[in-house]
């Protein structure tokens, strides 16, 4: 008993005050890219060539955040003359096109659907399906249930049964072998239901793009309402997106 | 031993130098080696001169390699020699359509068409979407029932399928079927530009990003004749240890949760996050993705980063000790941990378990000590104390490894007072007609990558082995004659990778 009390005192209260107070991530964290539009086209081309994900559209000076794994190799070219990464973790979007971005994303709250907010604003139950990724997305989704993020204080929970869920939170590039199980889970969720594509894999196939064993993007098989980029998305990216998109007073 | 070539971890050998035996010779050499307390690191098929070859990487205290030629089938070594071949032979059948004759339990591993476009050994039609044409083990009789779970599990967990054959609460047999996470990684790695390799390897298993990518980069460095500065080596070693600590702490938290002891579950969950954040301090990603590149590290480490890590470790080390003490001294926890899910030393050795699962059963193998890479040449190993093979032992090994890893990082921090410089992704020209094996002790145990290049310097075969490939069978064995309600606890104590296995 004494040990329990001593540990309780030592651990103290750890829950983050986000979103009431802003949160600062370490300067090495790579969030929303800042694109320098006056950059020499030759450098932009170099960045596109070095990009392992083919995520840079050099002609348009844009980065596809749905493909990007935020590895930061482009930032190393010419001291970040074309792109540097900010610490802005707010990167959720309601459309795939918006992720092909010039450094700016539409305000998610303004683009969220009002009937979703009405339906799910106070209580959102999600069924998570891991469909062929590397498990980092799942791990950083699980983290939302640790004391620091404490997701359930916002009325958002991950549930075991699709029958109890309002929607699907999908990670992974949807391997051929998971497609059937994923669709069956989707079917089992009562309507109206929402679908979230979380992480580069579920948005575009991620590091595994071009593999014949994956479907390569959730939107090819299900209608997606919310996209959360990252490899994996920082837990704060997920938290921000869920709060902005679904709750009434984020 | 003339039929075995001794190699070193991370050493490039010519493909022509690998002994090429007839199958009977090969079978004899392998059987003999395994019978003398030897283990298999890799065993796989590859094409050469329009022939099918089998290549085996073996270890006792040294590392050996040998190969043979086979046609469309060969006599199963699982049947004649050892269970250690079981999964490897099933994988060979699936990947290359070569049948191991008389294999006692020949079924698919990941459910995909073979690489050679020859008729499927299992008679499956892979144009149909549904995996599940599996010959499941069956038990019949009064009171026998079957419990099937997955592929979509109850929590935020990767997909896999488990079948329990039970009499009442007692489990006779647990069958584990994977493949749902199969992304075709080994095949993909042979046909993409080299710049994609580190990122794909980080995605073999996200919780082992550092471990797998380290194996990949070490192989590319040796094949591409790149050297790594001693300073960068320090950071890579530290990152591997941070990854180990983060995962072990997460597991101790999950184990606490499974025995309904919530305080340590919450504390460990939070502390795990602190270690992930330390990886973010190093490289900007909580899983250490993008940190390691062929030739070094992508971000330099200077006094700012090493200072943060040092201070954080000083703060967290006593917390971890106290929470561990809370967990391991609770008699309710001991009552659930001890003598649950026991895998004897004999069974562990027969299956070839690695990492904490093997150590907990008394198999004293740590790749950091046996086949050191990076800074491990100059770091001390440790020996775990409790080796009963039960859940308690597997939990206790983690506690010891966490403390040992903190000690290692502190040692390394003292050596890295100066700047550890970064490198960038460079063009690499790989050695032609070469073979390399790289081994590292990931947090789950021995990780190994084996690459074969062709005469045009391209990677012809990329073979990956996650420690889970050995250890899933250990989990199935731990459930024998246990109560089915002990499954979550046994499962967490092994905490194996689905994606690392599925590839």
TrEMBL record, chain A:
Residue span(s) of domain NADH:ubiquinone oxidoreductase-like 20kDa subunit: 134-244
Signal sequence coordinates: none
InterPro entries: Complex_I_20kDa-like, NADH_UbQ_OxRdtase-like_20kDa, NADH_UQ_OxRdtase_20Kd_su
Protein origin, superkingdom: Bacteria
UniProt GO molecular function: 4 iron, 4 sulfur cluster binding; metal ion binding; NADH dehydrogenase (ubiquinone) activity; quinone binding
Cofactor: [4Fe-4S] cluster
Family: Belongs to the complex I 20 kDa subunit family.
PANTHER family: FORMATE HYDROGENLYASE SUBUNIT 7-RELATED, HYDROGENASE-4 COMPONENT I
Name of the protein in question: Hydrogenase
Lineage, opening ranks: Bacteria, Pseudomonadati, Thermodesulfobacteriota, Desulfobulbia, Desulfobulbales
UniProtKB/TrEMBL annotation, chain B:
Gene Ontology MF annotations: NAD binding; oxidoreductase activity, acting on NAD(P)H; quinone binding
Organism from which the protein derives: Desulfomarina profundi
UniProt gene name: ehrL
A Pfam family reported for this protein in Swiss-Prot or TrEMBL: Complex1_49kDa
Start and end residues of each NADH-quinone oxidoreductase subunit D domain: 263-418, 432-497
Protein name as annotated: Hydrogenase
Record flagged with keyword Oxidoreductase: yes
Keyword Oxidoreductase appears in the UniProt entry: yes
UniProt KW keywords: Oxidoreductase
